[in-house]
Design brief:
The structure holds two protein chains of two kinds.
Chain A lengths: L1 H9 L1 H18 L7 H11 L4 H10 L5 H30 L6
Helix pairs in contact in A: 3-5, 4-5
Chain B lengths: L1 H24 L5 H22 L8 H24 L5 H23 L7 H29 L11 H22 L5 H18 L7 H23 L2 H24 L4 H6 L23 H9 L3 E6 L1 H5 L3 H13 L3 E6 L9 H8 L7 E3 H4 L8 E5 L8 H4 L18 E6 L19 E5 L2 H13 L2
Parallel strand pairs in B: 1-2, 1-4, 2-3, 4-5, 5-6
The chains are: A mainly alpha, B alpha/beta.
């Protein structure tokens, strides 16, 4: 239990961020027309590609002699990039079609 | 020291662009710019991480090379797939990319486990990210295969809800064991990884294809959550804000979608579609089906004043969006008033039809939402149903035994004439019969939607 309180004290700022972000997320999505649900889902999909940063961090922190680790990290960066690039490009392609409309 | 400050500034910029981008994605006028802003923020965060992060030891050059090669490969493949895939395949593509993010989160967990064994809280973050990421990955791949057509029918083991719950409990128990005992050997973690993958498959496999959009949206928020756990692990603000933002926004979006179908989330996950007999419960309406040829359909349309087009997934499959737009323009030039009725879940995703019709340059104002169009059906002389089925099935209103009972539908039955363009009498995605087809006001025009529309256009031109 002591450890738990320690954890709260050490991470209180991050916990605040989590709580605030939950409300921001709810506010941002409420009242969006159904027309935009698909692009929005796709855009959100690209944004969670931010997990690629974790993959890069893991690579940078890794012991350079840990070849299995490097291989897994390499794969993680490739897949993370797929998520980010594919996600943003697909969303852009969807939204491109809305451009001529008023 | 300065590098650390710069890195923090980069993450702050990224977090702000994510929020601004999401906000702008919520309005048709700013959506595209919003997506681009978020993309720029992401690029800044990624580059800053590579160049500014200090792991506390010398990083050999070849690791940087590896990172750039990996990014180059991912960019090339991601870009290529995203640009070349047909608009009709968008939903499964979103699912595929979502799965990639989930896999990344899971792999990070496998990599970092040995480095944080002294902290139960960091291990808890790792385990949570690993489990959620793996479930999201496996689930997304199943959803992808289902939308792809590789895996059409929902597969259900007898008592699948019980089995799923048992596997979930096993996942949770193993996860708790790992967090509490933190075994040196990674075997337990790999076992958890595999078990989570199994659960991901079992979670999605019994769910019917018509519910896939909801599932994808849910898995999308799962991946966001997994990214957020990564943020906790590394004390990384960009991952934390981006992840939580998507996790919370994705959850709301999922609920909005289930609301559009008048279902609850638990109803989607624990099954309603297909629990009933797929043929329609034996009490399926039978009667005579009237078919019509393209020239009679053209005559009907030519003398109509108000025409409402109801597009569905069949339109997307037949790639008939340009043909339907041509038909609409032709009718308008003859003084016919044409509108499109957009059901919130027409196609495979909410907004799917809007995207498709926008591609064919259909005027945005002609697309009318369900609530606004429903009162107008009674004034419509002809309703043209193009490849839609479940969203116009009166069973949703009349038959409490029907699996789609309660879903709001388009009231096409109020119109004077109904023409249904359909490939065959095969039931729709929900796998149930549609009594609309047996309605005396309904005429069926069988064949490929694009062919049929082109034939109608040719007939109309000769009038």
């Amino acid at each position: 239990m002591e450890g738990f309180f320690q954890f709260i004290n050490d991470n209180i700022e991050m916990i605040y961020i989590v709580v605030l972000m939950i409300f921001v997320g709810i506010e941002l999505i409420s009242h969006v027309p159904a027309v935009l649900h698909t692009p929005l889902m796709s855009g959100a999909n690209a944004i969670h590609g931010v997990v690629i940063i974790g993959a890069i961090l893991a690579m940078l922190r890794m012991d350079p002699h840990n070849y299995t680790g490097l291989a897994i990290g390499f794969l993680a960066v490739v897949l993370g990039t797929l998520n980010v690039v594919g996600g943003f490009v697909v969303t852009d392609r969807m939204l491109e079609m809305f451009k001529t409309q008023k | 020291m300065n590098a650390q400050a710069l890195l923090n500034i980069a993450y702050l910029i990224a977090a702000v662009t994510f929020m601004v981008g999401m906000k702008m994605l919520g309005s048709p006028k700013t959506a595209r710019r919003g997506n681009q802003i978020a993309a720029v923020g992401m690029a800044i965060a990624v580059l800053a991480t590579i160049f500014l992060y200090d792991p506390g030891h010398e990083v050999p050059t070849f690791i940087y090379v590896l990172i750039f090669v990996a990014i180059a490969i991912g960019t090339f493949i991601g870009w290529y797939i995203a640009v070349t895939v047909d608009m009709t395949k968008m939903p499964e593509l979103v699912s595929f990319f979502n799965g990639m993010g989930g896999a990344t989160a899971a792999l990070i967990g496998l990599l970092e486990y040995p480095h944080f064994l002294d902290s139960p809280y960091k291990i808890a973050m790792i385990v949570a990210g690993l489990v959620i990421g793996s479930v999201s990955f496996a689930g997304s791949m199943v959803a992808w295969a289902k939308l792809n057509g590789t895996m059409r029918k929902p597969i259900r083991l007898p008592k699948y809800n019980v089995w799923n719950t048992l596997v979930l409990l096993a996942v949770l128990a193993l996860a708790a064991y790992i967090v509490v005992t933190r075994p040196e050997s990674p075997v337990y973690l790999y076992a958890l990884f595999l078990l989570s993958l199994v659960y991901g498959v079992m979670f999605v496999i019994p769910i019917g294809g018509a519910d896939m959009p909801v599932v994808i949206s849910l898995l999308n928020s799962f991946t966001g959550l997994a990214a957020a756990f990564g943020g906790f692990l590394y004390d990384n603000m960009a991952m934390l804000t981006g992840g939580v933002l998507v996790g919370s926004a994705g959850t709301i979006l999922t609920i909005a979608m289930t609301k559009a179908m008048n279902r609850s989330l638990s109803n989607v996950i624990f099954g309603a579609f297909g629990d009933t007999d797929l043929t329609g419960g034996g009490e399926g309406p039978k009667g005579t089906v009237k078919s019509i040829n393209p020239s009679d359909a053209a005559i009907l349309l030519n003398y109509a004043k108000n025409v409402i087009i109801v597009p569905g997934y069949g339109l997307a499959v037949a790639q008939a969006q340009h043909a339907i737009h041509e038909l609409e323009e032709l009718l308008e030039s003859k003084g016919v008033n044409v509108k499109y009725a957009i059901h919130p879940v027409a196609g495979r995703m909410p907004g799917h039809m809007n995207v498709l019709l926008a591609e064919a340059n259909v005027d945005y104002d002609k697309l009318v939402d369900m609530d606004d169009i429903n009162p107008q059906f009674k004034n419509a002389d002809v309703v043209l149903v193009v490849g839609a089925n479940d969203v116009v099935n009166p069973a949703a209103k009349k038959n409490p035994a029907s699996p789609i009972y309660g879903m709001p539908i388009l009231d096409v039955e109020d119109a004077k004439n109904i023409i249904v363009l359909k490939r065959s009498m095969k039931p729709g995605y929900a796998g149930i019969d549609n009594e609309l087809f047996y309605n005396p006001k309904t005429s069926m025009l069988f064949g490929d939607a694009k062919d049929s529309i082109t034939k109608i256009i040719n007939e109309l031109k000769n009038m």
